[in-house]
């Protein structure tokens, strides 16, 4: 039974805990969080990312280099341009969950709860008028 518990990556004694802390440290920067949000819909070049996050292309390039080493983003060459994309869905989900948690910290009903309630309600059938 203990062997099964130790095999789980989500256990308190997981070998991945320290690496998870490094992931959180990488995301403990507002510019990197903004980069991930910008890349969630697809690839972007450094210049476009710089415009979206409000930083210089040089600063964005430095953040992207660190994120690339951490395997959060990857690149694709298109002619002379380098396009960046999220390496996988997990960084996007981590950032989304962190923002949802931040909404909870403000109190009241978080926006993501209102969206989920509206999405869960079935569509009402159209009413026919009596002729």
UniProtKB/TrEMBL annotation:
A Pfam family found in this protein is: HTH_5
Gene3D superfamilies, alphabetically?
Winged helix-like DNA-binding domain superfamily/Winged helix DNA-binding domain (1.10.10.10)
Q: Which organism's genome codes for this protein? A: Pseudarthrobacter enclensis
HTH arsR-type domain ranges (all copies): 12-106
**GO function terms (MF aspect):** DNA binding
Source taxon at top rank: Bacteria
Please give the SMART domains that the UniProt record associates with this protein: HTH_ARSR (SM00418)
Which keywords are on file for this protein?
A: DNA-binding, Transcription, Transcription regulation
Checking InterPro entries in the record gives: ArsR-like_HTH, HTH_ArsR_DNA-bd_dom, Metal_resp_trans_reg, WH-like_DNA-bd_sf, WH_DNA-bd_sf
Q: Which CDD domains match?
A: HTH_ARSR
Q: What protein name is recorded for this chain?
A: DNA-binding transcriptional ArsR family regulator
């Amino acid at each position: 039974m203990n062997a099964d518990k130790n095999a789980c990556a989500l256990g308190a004694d997981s070998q991945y805990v320290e690496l998870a802390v490094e992931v959180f440290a990488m995301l403990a920067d507002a510019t990197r969080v903004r980069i991930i949000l910008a890349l969630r819909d697809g690839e972007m070049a450094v210049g476009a990312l710089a415009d979206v996050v409000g930083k210089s292309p040089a600063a964005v390039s430095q953040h992207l280099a660190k994120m690339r080493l951490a395997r959060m983003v990857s690149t694709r060459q298109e002619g002379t341009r380098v396009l960046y994309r999220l390496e996988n869905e997990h960084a996007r989900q981590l950032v989304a969950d962190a923002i949802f948690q931040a909404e909870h910290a403000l109190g009241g009903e978080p926006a993501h709860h209102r969206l989920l309630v509206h999405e869960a309600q079935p569509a009402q059938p159209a009413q026919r008028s009596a002729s």
